[in-house]
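So, does this match?
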Amino acid sequence: MKSVNIIAALAAALLLSACQQKQEAPAVVVPQDPSIVNISDALLGRLKVASAGEVAVAETMRVPARIEMDEQRVARIGAAVTGRVTGLFAEIGRRVPKGALLAQLNSTELSSAQLVYLKAHSQENLQASAVRRARLLYESDVISAAELQKRESEWMQAQAEKVAAQDRLKVLGMTLRDLDTLAVTRSVHSLSSVTAPIDGTVVERKVTQGQVLQPADPMFTIADLARLWLIAEIPEQQAGGVRTGGEAMAEIPALPNQAIRGKLIFVSDTVKPDTRTVTARMAIDNPEGLIKPGMLASMLIKGRPRHRVMVPTAAVVRENNRDHVFVRLDQHRFQLRAVKLGAEEGGYSPALEGLKAGEAIVTEGAFHLNNERRRKELEG
């Protein structure tokens, strides 16, 4: 009986000790979410809250680009004859009108071709006179029809030889006016003039005084720089919505604060296999010559419209190098939520991630609301 009482006393002591330990255990504290702030009615009155709306937005894609000459306004001029350069009259950077004299060559090939032309011209005149006489004789029954046909055949051959000689001189750079003058004066010369075929600026010169040139050797490049091309290589993954005639804009670092708007005049139908890009081209007017070929630039292209949730710029809070907005949870509680935004345009940015259409966000007063959230976070 005594042993039973001792066991009961020990059990009661252990139970009491366990109860004391349970009472002394510290309470578990659930930390409050620092992104959520509970505000007073006074601060609530300073805020404007609206539902995030969804609209169709044509997103703007930015790709590196380069300024190049308009190839449709470029003339690459070569030597028409074999000859030696005896005169240079065009310098790089000089603007020249169409027909301006750029250089002169001394060419024995040209003088030889002129002699052939003069001989052919004389022969053609001689055969024409022979045909006229033969027709008179034929009408007087002095010669036969066969003899007349022979004279006419010789005249036609002389005409063909004259045309061939004339065409050769045209290839060598002589004009119809030059040919008429040569036929009248019958004065052979060996100077070949190189002239500008278009109005433009001399952007390249590859000849020097006294240099001997062969036909088709490059001499000058003239370009009309009043209109240029902006060329960009668009990654294959982003090229699906790019079309000829689509809106585009150029930004040139060398000309800050000068956004140039225009349309795409060309989008390649093929993908470059080495870079996996599609070439796009935009025309740029350059009447003052401020834009230079070779300048680096960026091309901004509007893609296909897509439905996006739009966020006003005033609603965005920058925190830890990320964009955030305050989303209303209930009447007095708001949560700072991270979002991923697209390019801003017209005071709004599309929310690519982090926000759904219809959610209520703080559109005015987000700065004050974030200060209140920070204050309460510091107070613990």
